[in-house]
Amino acid sequence: MQDQIETSAEAAEAAALPKCYEVHADPKAESGSKKLPETLKKPVDSKSPAQWAYERLILYIQNFEQTLDGDHEVAMGFTGGDAGVMRIEGMGYFDPDMITFYGSDGTGARTQLLQHVSQLNVMLRALPKSVEDKPANRIGFRLAADLKGS
After folding, report:
1. Angle between helices 139-149 and 49-65 (to 10 degrees)
2. Pick from 34, 36, 79, 110: CA 20 to 30 A from residue 23's CA?
3. Residue 1, SS3 per DSSP
4. Burial 106-129 (b: 16+ CB within 10 A, else e)
């Protein structure tokens, strides 16, 4: 049952606004609708596919990092081939449809992944932090702060 009456224009606009919904097996994990940052509450057609993917990835990375202890950092796992895992140290996009990840692989070599949004397939992983006497790197919070500033 609907509590609020909407005009057809309001209903169409609401249908085009992004939503985020999750259910987890662990009842302690967040579930249901997530509160989205203001930058993600704009109609879907107001941004390029690359910008939408970039902003949503920031949200996922930040939420994943909130589950990590001080000894682990976020990394990405790759499917297919021997690409392995990349510690995420930066991220960007190139309109209209490219996402870029910057980081380092397991040997410490500089790594950059360029990916078309239609091929986007990211697995977030927790890796032990790279330097023991340094706090864990939290790229998601830096990305989110940059997103709020732009």
Report:
1. 140
2. 79
3. coil
4. eeeeebebebebeeeebebbbbeb
The pair of structure tokens assigned to 75 is 């990394």
Alpha-carbon distance 117 to 60, whole Å?
Answer: 16
Tokens 């499917």 correspond to 79
Q: How confident is the model at residue 1 (pLDDT cuts 50, 70, 90)?
A: very low
**Three-state DSSP class for residue 93:** strand
Query: How far apart, in whole angstroms, are the C-alpha atoms of residue 118 and residue 49?
Result: 9
Please write the tens of the pLDDT for every residue from 18-62.
666 666 667 666 555 566 777 777 777 788 999 989 988 988 898
What does the H/E/C string look like for 39-85? HHCCCHHHCCHHHHHHHHHHHHHHHHHCCCCCCEEEEEECCCCCCCE
Query: Nearest CA to 43 among 8, 7, 10, 14?
Result: 14
